[in-house]
């Protein structure tokens, strides 16, 4: 399972690093989507929201490739993965197989780091006491 986790982590990192970088450098020609998907993508491009998305993809992909702060990378890439899937489910179904691949890779990497991700589901984290020994929340 450890080898599968490493492969999934590297593949997911490469996907996000390459496609995030492509948003800035345009080395992979990608025709704009048509219809409502094109209007949505056009609005994101006009508002420069894509710049933020591409930057987060590059940072998350780099963290996954380096192998440091993997749980942080999964946390910042999670909403982007959900957005990618929803875009392809609702607006542009022809990209759905790639979106499903990204989800599967994300889940495999998340399962391998579940010990680190478990803390985000703690309803009341341990709060250290202040200098007088009181716990303030």
How would you characterize this protein structure?
The chain is mostly helical. It has one domain. Helices cover 70% and strands 0% of the residues. The protein is built from 6 helices and no strands. The longest helix is centred in the N-terminal third of the chain and has 24 residues. It starts with a helix and ends in a 20-residue tail after the last helix. The relative contact order is 0.14. The model has no long low-confidence stretch (mean pLDDT 91).
Key descriptive features of the protein:
70% helix, 137 residues
Instruction: Say how many strands there are.
Output: 0
For the termini, the CA-CA separation is 40 Å
β-strand percent reads under 5%
Shape: globular
- Sheet with the most strands, sense and barrel status: none
Layout of helices and strands, plus pairs?
Blueprint: H1 2-25, H2 35-46, H3 49-66, H4 70-90, H5 96-112, H6 114-117
In short:
70% of the residues lie in helices and 0% in strands.
């Amino acid at each position: 399972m450890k080898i599968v986790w490493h492969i999934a982590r590297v593949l997911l990192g490469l996907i996000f690093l390459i496609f995030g970088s492509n948003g800035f450098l345009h080395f992979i020609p990608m025709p704009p989507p048509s219809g409502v998907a094109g209007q949505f993508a056009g609005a994101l491009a006009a508002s420069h929201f894509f710049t933020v998305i591409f930057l987060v993809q590059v940072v998350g992909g780099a963290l996954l490739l380096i192998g440091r702060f993997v749980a942080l990378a999964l946390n910042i890439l999670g909403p982007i993965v959900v957005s990618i899937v929803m875009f392809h489910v609702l607006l542009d179904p022809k990209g759905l197989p790639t979106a499903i691949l990204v989800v599967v890779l994300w889940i495999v990497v998340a399962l391998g780091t579940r010990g680190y991700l478990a803390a985000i589901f703690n309803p009341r984290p341990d709060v250290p006491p202040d200098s007088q020994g009181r716990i303030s929340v």
